[in-house]
What we know:
pyridoxal phosphate; PyrdxlP-dep_Trfase; binds pyridoxal-5'-phosphate; Aspartate Aminotransferase, domain 2; seven-stranded mixed sheet; four-stranded antiparallel sheet
Amino acid sequence: MSMPPLASGPEGSDALRPLLATVLDALDAGARSRGGPLPAGGPHTVAAHVREALGDPLPEHGDPDALHTLVRTLAAGAADPAHPLCAAHLHCPPLAVATAADLAVSALNPSLDSWDQAPAASELETLLTQALAAEIYGHPNPAPPTGPTPAPKGPTPTLNDLTAPTTRRRPATVPTPPADALVTTGGTEANHLALLLARETHGPALRLVCGANAHHSLPRAAWLLGLPEPVILPTPTGVLDPATLHHTLTTRPGPHLVAATAGTTDAGLIDPLPALAALCHTHGARLHIDAAYGGGLLFSDRRRSLLTGLEAAHTVTLDLHKLGWQPVAAGLLAVRDPHDLTALHHHADYLNADDDTEAGLPDLLGRSLRTTRRPDALKIAVTLKTLGRSGLGALVDRVCDHARQLADLITAHPGLELHAPPTLSTVLFRPAHATDNAVADIRRRLLIHGHAVLGRARLDGRLWLKTTLLNPHTRPADLTALLRLVEGNTPA
Length: 492
Ligand SMILES: *Cc1c(COP(=O)(O)O)cnc(C)c1O
């Protein structure tokens, strides 16, 4: 066999072009053979198709059709978030432009653990993360310079100036250190980092306090970091109750890290952020806000005010592979005080030797716990610049409006019960008078027949069907079709 071509270099584009045509053809063929939001037949059928297409995963001699065969198989067996009846999870259909940018990243393959592997990508990430942090925490004053940055940007080099006593004496003329953000693989890694930074500030006795509505990755991160057993507060209304938090902060020994949620995974609800932030301030507790889902509201003029209080958090989790329409992965942890990031500073001579850093090579290693790291910043930057705030905000508004429309249809339907009017793009409902088992059966039947992908959520002691609407192209007829499918699969 001749040498397989490379994705970059002088022949890169010529090598990729026919392969891309193959991929696009296989994606189309696979989707056509699927014919719905997910493959019919359930796990055994799908597994058999995959086993047959794959054959020997490590054959002695290669197969030139492997790309077409496997891409087609994966597409045929996909749960396609771009299908309007695939609406279970925070699993978004990625924008074409973001996916195209991601392809460029795959071709160039920069790695963000050192400047000499990612000269432009590292600067792009710096600018993007600063802009997104400023979106959450407000823009630094004075405005950052435009044009090329003369000095290298790392987590630590400029902080001495910024923390000098003059900072406090002359706040109007000396810039406060601007907020910063780290790119993560998603909400889970961002929450994990938030707990780590909090522990490095408050010590190993730090106790996580969160609601039963919080994402499972938060208590898991506490476990992973060896922190004391978290306090999980009951959330009978779906959101954290300030009075309950007040009681905990006054009766349980600290230090505390309170984790609030802006956009719960099950119901899309937003904790009362201003009241919780005020309590944390009063009791000296650190505040993390998990806005993995709801953070997208920042781009919507109509809905941004739902996030009031977000800026009070020490750290904020954001997931642009949810309400940001990015291919996985596109997470972010924003940090109000960039000093917190010095805890991640790390030295490995081959990546950030002191003399290299002193000579002006940016030190990137403290921007993540990972070493080799893909520049997910490119697809995000391309998306923000292509659509602009208004374009992205319009997508957020569209899916939230879809949720309202679906809720109205459910309310008007005598056979269905709506859990609550939606805040974000999640709608929970169930056939009136159905048992929990019947609700679970409906969901599984729709999955196995390949008719629809709906989620499930247990709230108020009952099981609900969950629709998470993230497809801006969904039409009203799709929403009616979804309800008709549920109706048609409800036992009499
Ligand atoms: C999705 C989600 C997470 C986890 O994010 P991943 O990107 O799946 O790691 C964390 N918190 C909330 C509220 C979420 O909805």
